[in-house]
Each structure stands twice: as C-alpha cells, then as structure tokens.
Amino acid sequence: MTNPAQLITDMGNKARAAFLTLSGVTDAQKSTALISAARHLRAGAATILEANGRDMESARDRDLSDAMLDRLMIDESRLEAIAAAVENVAELPDPVGQIIDRSERPNGLMMERVRVPLGVIGIIYESRPNVTADAAALTLRSGNAVILRGGSEAIESNRAIFEAMTAGLAEEGLPENAIQLVQTTDRAAVGAMLKASGLIDIIIPRGGKSLVKRVQDEARVPVLAHLDGICHTYIGKDADQDKAIAIAVNAKMRRTGVCGAMETLLIDQDYPAPGPLLRALIDAGCEVRGDDMIMELDPRTVPADADDWNTEYLAPIVAAKMVRDMEEAVAHIAEHGSHHTDVIVTEDSAIADEFIRRADSAIVMHNASSQFADGGEFGLGAEIGISTGRLHARGPVALEGLTTYKWVVRGTGQVRP
Amino acid sequence: MTNPAQLITDMGNKARAAFLTLSGVTDAQKSTALISAARHLRAGAATILEANGRDMESARDRDLSDAMLDRLMIDESRLEAIAAAVENVAELPDPVGQIIDRSERPNGLMMERVRVPLGVIGIIYESRPNVTADAAALTLRSGNAVILRGGSEAIESNRAIFEAMTAGLAEEGLPENAIQLVQTTDRAAVGAMLKASGLIDIIIPRGGKSLVKRVQDEARVPVLAHLDGICHTYIGKDADQDKAIAIAVNAKMRRTGVCGAMETLLIDQDYPAPGPLLRALIDAGCEVRGDDMIMELDPRTVPADADDWNTEYLAPIVAAKMVRDMEEAVAHIAEHGSHHTDVIVTEDSAIADEFIRRADSAIVMHNASSQFADGGEFGLGAEIGISTGRLHARGPVALEGLTTYKWVVRGTGQVRP
Fold it and tell me: Minimal Cα distance from B347: which residue of A?
C-alpha cells in the first residue's frame, strides 16, 4: 500500500496536470459535464443507495449516533436533491474570464484583471456524502481541480457518488483527474493534504468544530473556514420594539444549531423595553444567561459567567448583557466575537452606519436576523463555506471565492524606457 | 530586556487596538496625517541624516559591500524623494469604503460588499531605510496598522524616519500605534512575527531571496511575496521581427537585476528569424545559453544545462530554447516558471489569447516587455510588492491588495422563514 504522503503527492501532481488541461476548457463544456454528472448520479441510483446501505450498516455496527446516521443516510429523494444541486451549479454564471477592471496606460498598454480559477482545492469533510457531489460541482464549475477527502464512515457512498461524477466528466471529454477522491481511510492522508504546499492551493474543511480546528492548527496550506459563529445582536436605544423582538427571537430560535444563530444579545441601557424582549425569548423556550442588570428584568433569567461571552451554544441558550452605548457594543464584539455575523437593530441610520463601519465582522447586518448568513440567502446560488478569515474571501463563499485573477497586459511592442 | 515573543505580542495587541481606532478615522484624516508626516520628515532632515551617518559608519566598520552601503545611504535628495513618496501616497484614492458590488434580494434585503482594511500588517525588510516611510504610508493610507521590522544595519535611520512618521500621525490625532517599529535587532523578533497568528494578519517581506525564503518557510501567518521571477518571453511563429528584438533585448538588458527581467527565451521553431534575435541579444552584451537547436544558430552561444531552465540569473545571461509550438511553450512555463510574468510576442491574436488563457502567471503580457512588471507602470501609483501567490492579491500589489471586504446587509426587520 502506498504511504499517504506519496499518495497525496501523486494525486496533487495529477490534479495540477488536470488543472492545466481545464484552462483550455470552455464554460459550456464545464456546464455540460456537470449536467452529464447529474444524469450519471440518477442513473447510478441503485449502486449509490446500495453503497450507502453498506456504510449505514457499518455505522450501526459501530453504534454511531442517530444524528450521525441521519447525516450519512441517502434515500431516493436525497439523491434526487444531490443531482438537482449539481444541475443548479451547472446553471450558475461562470466567473472565469470575467474582466474585473481594465485601464489604458499613457504608453498605450492595456491593463486588465481577469478572473481565473484558483488551482487545486482540497476539501476535507465528514459524514455527509452529498458534499462529494456538491463540492466537486462548485470547484469544477469555477475551473479548479479538486481533491476530496470524506469521512471514513461514508467511504462507500462517497466512492459511488465520485464515480458517477467522473463518469459525467469523461463523457464530455474533461480530464477525469479534475475530480479525485482520496480512497484510503488512513487519517495520515489528511495530514499530508494539510502540508501539500505547492500542490494544493487552498483547503476547505466542511464539518464540525474539531475537524476545522485540526485543519487550522496543522495546515501549511491556506485554509478557508470559520471555527466559531459567536454572533451578536445589538439592540440600539432607538430600535423598533417589534423588530427587536422578531429579529432576536428569529436569530436565536429559528434553528439553534447553525453558525449564524445569535449567541449573545447586547441591549442598550437606554432601550426602553428590554423586559418584553427577554420575555419573548424566554417564552420561545430560550434560556437567558444575563449580567446583573439583565437578571433584574426577569426572574427567569440565570446568571452568566465569564465563559458565556465566549461560548457558541448552538442550543436554545443566549448570553445577554446591558451595554452603555454602541461604542461598548462594538468593543464587546471586538473582544468576544468570532468575526462571523453581527447585527444592529436600530431606527437611527447614523448609528447603524457607524456600527457597520466599526464592527469587524465578515457580515454586518442592520435590522435583519443573523440567520440570513448563508450563501443562498445572499444570492450566491450556492455556498462552499463561510470564511471568518480576512484574506482572499470573507463571509459566504461560492464560485467567485474559488477564483483569483491574473493581470493581462496587451501591448503593441512597448518596451520600458 | 523583554523577550522577543512577548515584545511582538505586546506590539500586536497595541496594533489591534490602533486598528480598531483607525476604523473610526476618515479618509481626509489619514491623508492629512501623511502630509504632516512628510513635513516632519523634511523638518527632521538633520536628525535623520545624522542617524543614517551612524548606520553608515558601523556598516563600513563591518565591511559591508558597496552595494549594501548604497542601499543604506540617505542624502538630502534621497530624503526628499522619501518625503515626496509619502505625499504621493496621501494623494492616492482611498480604497476603504468602496462598494465592490450591491444587490437586492427578493425579500428586500440589500447586500453590499464594502472594502475595509486588512488589519495588522507586518513588514520585514532589509537595508533600504526608505521602506520604513514607504510601507508605513501605504499601510496607513489603506486603514491598516503596521509593525515594521527593518534590518539591523539600518536601525538608527529607521528609528529616525519612524519618529518623523509617528509625529505626523500624532499631530493629526491619529493613534500613534498605527505605525510601530520593532526596535530590537534580536532576530528572534522576526521569528515571533512570523508566528503571530491572530495578531498579525499578513506578512510582507521586502528584500533579497534569502529573506523571502526564510519568511515563506517559517511563517504561520499568510505571506504576500514572490520568491523568484523566472520570466519567460515566447516568440511565436508570427511575431513581428522588430518587436521581437526590441522586446527581448529590453526584457533582458534594460535592468538585469529586477524581478521582471526575462530569464528564459522560448523561440517557436517556425519563427523565421531566430538568428538576428540571438545576435541582437549577444551584441547587447548578453550571454545566451542554448539548447542544441539554438547553439546551431550562433557560434557565440554556450550550452545550457538542466539547471538553466530553473535559474533566475538577475544578470546579463539568458537561457534560450526552441519550442515546437505555443503548447510546448506553455508546458515549459508550467514546469519551470515561477508564476511571475510571462510574455508572448506574436501578431496572431488568437494564439495570443490562447497563451494568455493558458499561462498560469500573475502577469501575462502580449507584445510588451516583461520589465513593465511594476505597480507604478500598472497605474497603481505605488507598490508594496509583487505576489506570485494565488490567493488574495496577485501581481503588483498596492493599496487595494491591503484591503479586504465585509458584507453589509441592510434590512427593514427581515427574519428568516
């Protein structure tokens, strides 16, 4: 058996070669290949469901939790959703070749910045086998080669989906190595991917916090990800009371397990109706952990300790704090936030603009629920992840975040004096 | 004495605080502060030249080379150029606050991507003290805080320039810690900067190859840089012969020590006049190291060995090779290039477009000299460096490359269904 480092080097070299070939492929070819891949996913339903059945069986033998089994499971309707998502990506506008800007220099040189694919992308993910199709489709649509490494519990399902995808590519004459799947379950392969500088251009982890943390800690290759979503909602003194209640309850309670869920509620001390706001949250089933001023407002609140301000609950719990003013809200977010999504609720647009300028988050919202933090809701048509890093791409990332640019200089024989 | 790791942590924390304060500063304030800094540079001429005199004296005692002494030296006209460059940056358009794109969603949410500063930037450089002013001006203009770490041989000059710059900031009420200088010459401070994840957002090395290599190898913080500039010029079969000669000679010989200098010449085997092209280069004083087919064309050529295709000479030497066609030229560049600047000379615009699409370089040029690879020539008004990395910013980088974006979502109370 090949050692994992050698395996990843070989796959990286094949990916780079495929990437070079892809640069000669048209938008239409990439799109058609994905539609063909979706067809192969549907045609291969029996094989895919059977492979998934084997994964489910081993997972039950290993006593995986119901939540994990549910993430792993594929049935006919889920497979149809996977195929439809691939077709959806095929229809998204191709960012490659877009001219970002153009200017002519006095010497007649024409300078253009043109969008090009990033290169070779590594995706490291856990149990959901739909990521195999989804990530492969997004990376291919944007002209990249991809190396996929899914969870060992989903290996059979991933392999079956992967084979349908590459059959689609082959049918349209695209390089099959544009999509590769790491077929060993040896965890050392992940380590090798994380260190494959020069072969893999960026790693995108998809999964729980422990996976993301390991990737961020060990990677020598740049990582696009978010570790925490400690999202704040600040209720300004001039907030509309109905909006404040609707937004806070939705931001916390619509789905508590998503990264855009509110984890900390900051209430301006001059906001006139904090009581009804807390009541609405508690009535909706939320535990409110407050500072002293909050605790005085409702006997059902419980005391917050220092850790609460740094905690991503992903549960019906919120930390709540009274702040003097917007300035203190921004300072609290700077100290405790995770640069994901932070919200101000106010009818004062000057204060809103100042908050928007000062809050150093990938997404800053005014009068909206932080649960909108999602590529689909942003109109990106899809999402490969949300980035809380500052470089390259920030917030929800879809096709454009999987591209870079090159400078194209068009001359007529100019030489530099 | 503080240990270097603690020193960098302290400076990083001060820089982050200054960065937060800077987010409340207007374009006009940043610009005025730089004009004020330029005034302080001129007013402090005696102090700066005296400090530089001390550096020059120690450098002579340590027998530094004439080239290094020249890089280190500041006289009145060089100081005037440094001050004028700071004023020039003050007049560049501020990228911060620019709206990159905007769209309205069906639910009425308005999505904007707005340019914001990157954060805290670390600059690690060698003997040229002008970088102290130059890099500080560019980072401040784009709203960032900066930690500067210059070469030990320039410490007195750097300190004097740094003090003039921060005096300018203080005069306009800007946070002085927006610009900080590492004042120890302990090299461990560089190591600490390279590992300061979470405190420093990006490191930009400015200097020779050994500095850049150390930074790239050791950094845990992202690095914006180029290591090599192995630039190719491919003479297509339909190249105009006069343009081919003018471009090749200029690309190689105008200045041989710059990163945009041509290092490899690829000649299409169907180009009808390779002899005069080689003759022009040799007559201009260039050594031509060729493959067998090149060697047959001129007795003054010498044989190239395998290393020549991977060498950045930075000298009047060029490696020259006959290629079958554009395809082979692109493959050669993919194998041996450094993703910096590559050029095609041809009158066939279809072939030019194909080359532009296929050559995976930060800068791809058609019918122009690779020596134009420079931020000033690109109309950026300045340059903090050239990046051969693929993420974030590519090619010549000025103010825009020192920014990122945030998503601003403007609502009227929307909650997610």
Answer: A412
Q: What is the pLDDT of residue B328?
A: 97
Q: Which residues of A touch B347 (CB under 8 A)?
A: none
Tens digit of each residue's pLDDT (9 = 90 or more) over A265-277: 999 999 999 999 9
Q: Are strands B110-117 and B403-414 parallel, antiparallel or unpaired?
A: antiparallel
CATH homologous superfamily of B4-224+396-408 equals Aldehyde Dehydrogenase; Chain A, domain 1 (3.40.605.10)
Mean pLDDT value of segment A84-102:
95
For residue B142, the distance in angstroms to the closest alpha carbon of chain A comes to 14
Residue of A105, A114, A363 with shortest CB distance to B409: A363
Half-sphere exposure of A340 (CA within 13 A, CB side): 27
Q: B397-410, pLDDT tens digit by residue?
A: 999 999 999 999 99
Distance, in angstroms, between A265 CA and closest chain B CA? 16
> Model-level pTM greater than 0.80?
yes
- pLDDT tens-place string over residues A291-314: 999 999 999 999 999 999 999 999
Average pLDDT of chain A is: 96
CATH superfamily, domain at B231-377: Aldehyde Dehydrogenase; Chain A, domain 2 (3.40.309.10)
Kindly state the average pLDDT of the residues A353-378.
96
Report the gap between the CA of B118 and the closest CA in chain A (Å).
6
A286's CB contacts (< 8 A; 6+ apart) are A249, A252, A253, A316, A317, A318
Using CB atoms, pick whichever of B116, B366, B405 lies closest to residue A410. Answer: B366
Chain B residue numbers touching A116 (CB-CB < 8 A): 360
B76: pLDDT strictly greater than 90: yes
Task: Give CA torsion, residues A357, A359, A360, A363, to 10 deg.
Answer: -90
List the domain boundaries for chain B.
Answer: 4-224+396-408, 231-377
pLDDT band at B157 (very low <50, low <70, confident <90, very high): very high
**Tens digit of each residue's pLDDT (9 = 90 or more) over B279-289:** 999 999 999 99
φ/ψ (deg, to 5) at B268: -65, 140
Name residue B80's amino acid. E
Query: Please, are residues A243 and A253 in contact by the beta-carbon 8 Å criterion?
Result: no
Q: What angle do CA A219, A220, A221 make, to 5 degrees?
A: 90
CB contact (8 A) between residue B411 and residue A368: yes
Is B231-377 in the same CATH topology as B4-224+396-408? no
Instruction: Confirm if B139 and B402 have CB atoms less than 8 A apart.
Output: yes
With contacts defined as CB-CB under 8 Å, which chain B residues touch A94? none
Closest chain B residue by Cα to residue A376? B105
Interchain pair A20, B246: CB under 8 A: no
Check A368 against B414: CB less than 8 A apart: yes
Average pLDDT over residues B389-398: 95
Q: Using a CB-CB distance cutoff of 8 angstroms, which residues of chain B are in contact with residue A364?
A: 406-409
CB contact under 8 A, B369 and A222: no
